[in-house]
Design goal:
With 364 residues, the protein is mainly α. Helix content is 53%, strand content 2%. α2 packs antiparallel against α3, α3 runs antiparallel to α7 and α4 runs antiparallel to α7. The chain starts with 5 loop residues before the first strand and ends in a 38-residue tail after the last helix. About 1% of the residues have low confidence.
Length: 364
């Protein structure tokens, strides 16, 4: 029994072809939108590539870019097919092409769905990439004279100012690394020498943060150094000075920023997938309705269209049998036909070395 059988008159078939022609051109526009979304996401990720570890984050924008380009090509072809199908006679040139086209388009729509789901499922990879990338950027913050790292100080400072954040998970992350270059330390100072000797790795650690951690909304001048020493500042208690520094870590700020972008893109791609699926459904109805009217021989008569000619179970079973038999088409069925070389008696009598005796010539 056919799945979702619908009866079409000739007028309805023609109108369906015209509507699908228009929708396929709209789908070309949605393909451009997919391409643009992938390009936008790639640019946004590249803006902060110095703050991200190498992970499979670029797979999502790359997939959206590829799917967008394929969508433009597939829907352009679909528009041409539907335009010709307004005339039933022109359908004959596409008759053998439409079913493979529908199958390819079906798998393409699955790729669109996968792209939408990937936008929602890459949260873990994004968190890990940002956590590792931010840790490395903070560790190399002081290396302003090292080639390849001299730009990281500016990158981290701009990040903390733009996203109003401090450190990886918080401002105390700066206490655990040396973020001041040795060239700016007075090595003759006893305090500096004591700090360097007190650390196993010989690092200059202090309870201070870069200027970019300062909260511009603080009512007092920003306190960057000796943050945990109340006696070093007038009328200061580091446990209650919540407005002095940004409290949010940059890891959380970036994760929220990219998560909001990808969720918005994922919702858009999901809507595009639903639209593409509806267009594919219409093309399938048009194909089956036109094939049935050709079988009937009367181009003006009504015809049935459907999504599947048989039920889901029967269709799945028949396709499984086809795939299963593909591997057996080149095998010899010895159980039925038998092997012609088995159980055949040997009529030759060879010599002791299993070599046939030479034939002596006979005189005429």
């Amino acid at each position: 029994m056919a799945v979702l059988r619908v009866k079409f008159t000739k007028t309805q078939r023609d109108k369906l072809a015209q509507v699908l022609w228009l929708l396929n051109w709209v789908s070309v526009v949605t393909g451009i939108i997919l391409f643009s979304l992938g390009l936008f996401l790639k640019v946004e990720i590249n803006k902060k590539r110095e703050l991200m570890a190498e992970r499979e984050i670029h797979s999502v924008p790359n997939m959206l870019i590829a799917v967008g380009l394929i969508a433009c090509i597939i829907n352009f072809i679909g528009g041409k097919i539907c335009y010709d199908c307004v005339d039933t006679n022109k359908f004959l040139r596409w008759k053998l092409v439409m079913l493979p086209y529908i199958i390819c388009t079906f798998f393409f729509t699955l790729c669109v769905l996968v792209g939408a789901l990937m936008c929602y499922t890459m949260h873990g990879e994004l968190e890990e990439a940002l956590a590792l990338g931010l840790s490395d950027a903070m560790r190399f913050y002081k290396d302003t004279d090292t080639p390849g790292r001299c730009f990281l100080k500016r990158t981290v400072d701009l990040l903390q100012i733009q996203f109003q954040c401090c450190g990886n998970k918080g401002s105390r992350d700066w206490f655990q690394i040396q973020w001041i270059s040795n060239r700016y330390l007075d090595m003759s100072s006893r305090e500096v020498q004591d700090r360097l000797r007190s650390n196993v790795e010989g690092k200059y650690l202090m309870d201070g943060v870069p200027f970019s951690c300062c909260n511009v909304n603080s009512p007092r001048p920003c306190i960057q150094h000796q943050l945990t020493n109340n006696s070093a500042h007038f009328n200061y208690d580091y446990k209650t000075e919540e407005l002095n520094l940004w409290k949010r870590g940059c890891h959380q700020a970036l994760v929220e920023y990219y998560t909001n972008i990808m969720h918005s893109i994922g919702l858009t791609v999901l809507l595009i997938w639903l639209f593409e699926l509806s267009v594919l459904t219409g093309v399938r109805y048009l194909q089956t309705a036109l094939e049935n009217v050709l079988r009937q021989g009367d181009l003006e008569s009504e015809s049935d269209g459907w999504l599947l000619e048989n039920s889901f179970v029967e269709t799945a079973r028949s396709n499984f049998n086809i795939i299963k038999n593909l591997g057996k088409c080149n095998q010899i069925d010895t159980a039925v036909n038998g092997d012609p070389n088995i159980d055949r008696p040997c009529t030759a009598h060879y010599g002791p070395d299993n070599v046939p005796p030479k034939q002596m010539p006979v005189a005429s």
